[in-house]
Request: fold
Amino acid sequence: MSLLSVDRLEKRFGGLPAVDGVSFAVDEGEILAIVGPNGAGKSTLLKVIGGLERATAGVVTLGDEPITGLSPHQIRRRGLAMVMQTPRSFSSMTTIENSVLGAMFGGHTGRLSEREAVARGRDALAFVGLGARARHPVGTLNLHEQRFLELARALAGRPRILLLDEVMAGLNDTELRSSIDIVRTVRDHLGITVIWVEHVMKAVMNLAERILVLNFGRVLVDGDPQQVMRHPEVIDAYLGTARA
Amino acid sequence: MLLDGTALGLQFGLLGVGLTLVYGLGGILNLAYGQMAVMGAMVVTLTMRAGLPAGWAVAVGLLTVGALGLLLDATIMRPVYRQQGEHRVLLSLLLTLGVGIVIDGLLMWRYPIGSLGLDIGGAAVEIFGVRMRTGTLLASVISVTTGGLMLAFLRMSTLGKAIRSVIQDEEGSRLVGINPAAVRRLIFILSGILAGLVAVTRSMTSPVGVNAGIDFTILALIVAVVGGLGSISGAFVAGILLGMVSTVSAFYIGQYITTIVLLAAAAATILLRPTGLLGRNT
Reply:
């Protein structure tokens, strides 16, 4: 059975469809990359799934429970965590405080004791390699490290599925490589399913096992990377050449 | 006089904190704040008149304003939360102004000459070689304790951090799994209790009249603005500072002019440091 399924999901702003009847499903342990040109509706799709935007129509099911219409914190507590492109860490706090908040409020295994939350927060920080920075204020981290902190904050809640929104934009090669590694480790070692919207194609081809291409809010192709990249319509969508 | 100023300032600080906490919720200014404080004071008066000892009466009063905060959050603030940005600010201003007027009207109609004066009695005490009235001393002790507890709660406890996270970035807090609605409820209750508490401690040195609501609101607003709206430690610092200014000015110039002096201080802060003393630069 699939872990997350999206059925004819629609999101309109005014009359304009940003997401226009998208359906797909991910199995437990998959890494699915969602790609597409600017304005294809990728980020909106993630936001609707995570509850940050309300769906106009359609259903999202997590496990065997529909989550459409729930608020973000309710969805998070059901085991779906998101990391956004712009880091949203709380800058007045230290990295460990941020991570512990994620463990305390973002878990789907019920209420935790303070001690347990701190332990999980610390584990998550160590996992992303920020263990030594636990007591540092968020302001001392660079963009790359802040994204890792966001990841730690998400992981601290021990989610079942992780949604990443263009988290590799603006990184240098070394940072990119470590980001790709950490996402793979999240899946391999923690068994967490990953849905990942990305612009950096190098990273996508390196990491994704399955690619979903969106264009004008619709699914263009859904398949394994080799297959997808050979697809004529994908080449069109990316190169913008008009074919007859 | 400096001690008097500090004592007053501590109370100003608490008053400002109560307002600034609510302001943190996306710019909600609670203009009924002072009326909530007065209502707390009136409940204490009535409860004492009914024969309860002062301590219990204060407890009942504070619980009542806390409940009033809860009520506001559950009813009239609902449409406010649904708005974003300027609309949220404006709607909150109009609605809470209305609530304030209604509370004012009710209180003045039912208890036109009501006031709360907690006479602590006893002789002046000597501290650090300075004589202080018992009322002033007790008010200060209560304010310092409450202020300390508030800061500790917000800085150290996970719940306090959750409150700060919502103030800082509501959407970010949702992503972490925090329910902003629950945090808002808590903030409104806390804010109500703080307002009530300040009315009670004020009444230990001079009576709090039924029509003092608007004065409390203005004062809280000034303190919160000078401290940097949304900044909790800023409100404390600004409170103490303004308390001193107020005492000195009231002594040398007069009570009425003092309000103008305080307003001028707020205006000067906005001109010189728009983010307030300890405000965040966002």
